[in-house]
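Notebook entry, cofactor series.
This is the third protein in the set we're modelling with a bound small molecule. For this one the ligand is NAP. I'm keeping the input format identical across the series so the outputs can be compared line by line later. Sequence and SMILES below, as received.
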Amino acid sequence: MSRQIKQHDELRLLITGAGSKVAEAIARILLMSPLRHNLYFTTSGISGFAHPDGEKIIVCDVSNRKHLKELCLYIQPHVIINTAAYTNVDRAEIERQQAWKANVCIVENLVAVCRLVDAHLIHFSTDYVFDGEHGPYVETDTPNPLGYYAKTKLAGENVCIGGNIDYTIIRTNVLYGYTEQKKHDFVSWTLHQLDKGKPFYVVSDQFSNPTLIDDVGYMVEKIIRKRAQGIFHAGGADWVSRYDFARAIARIFRLPEDLVQPISTRELRQLAPRPMRGGVIAYKAEALFGMKFCGIESGLLTMKRQLQSAGCHAWIL
Ligand SMILES: NC(=O)c1ccc[n+]([C@@H]2O[C@H](COP(=O)([O-])OP(=O)(O)OC[C@H]3O[C@@H](n4cnc5c(N)ncnc54)[C@H](OP(=O)(O)O)[C@@H]3O)[C@@H](O)[C@H]2O)c1
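Returned structure with ligand:
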């Protein structure tokens, strides 16, 4: 479907949501890749961002189809990687319009421009499209989203699938890792709680397989090289509760593990319902791309090393 790319062509890649964790990881991996490419980003300006020099970052509201169309006609991207999303699971229950606009309308716009310029769309989704009754899940399992965020993400997937374009959907879960932008994730939240030196509560009955963003960046590079299409799951090697993950974070960062106290989902009363046994099985991606997603110990050690080389904060020493 998307236009032929000759061997000597430099690939033009456009990443939406420059400020996302995943965008930064993809950019980092692409910088080290032998793939000949020219990388462009869009940002809504909602978040700050700090990507390495030499990259092109364009302020563009991608929910505005006219603006997106003008931009893509100018850049003529071969591949568009959509990392822009409304990702606050609880707030999405209240800010439904914003969540739908970001997670569905933007995807509709991207699909329309992919048709226009014959580009391949790589789109990010989540294990939350499943109900968490029987996780972790493979690509062929049947979605059954519980909360509003989850429903918007499944709707976004369906827009890609029905869009008559070349598409790849990457479902991932509990992303963590080093970002120059010091983006919020579960690890940074846990480290800040530990830093306060007081006990705090983490749910012990929600299970997932935390995923290092560097591994996701690596997988995206492989998808681009192989022009792989369809749905792929991207998830770490260890399937653990949030409580166990938080204890592992304390251990690796040499902070007091017993500050982490268990609490049940029922007691915590989060606004949006959560899949209890979530997570994704990544065997399909690992087999096709010849890669292995790391477990939490090696992922956290990688993140710790990256933080140390960037000279960040005392809790890593
Ligand atoms: N984080 C996770 O644990 C996780 C788990 C499963 C799936 N995912 C999926 O993976 C993708 C990337 O997640 P992430 O955690 O890296 O994202 P993130 O750090 O939360 O960043 C999302 C980015 O999207 C843009 N954005 C936010 N609200 C927007 C809005 N209303 N309209 C347009 N753009 C908006 C912002 O970038 P700009 O300010 O640069 O525009 C923001 O930095 C998302 O599709 C998410 O659903 C994430």
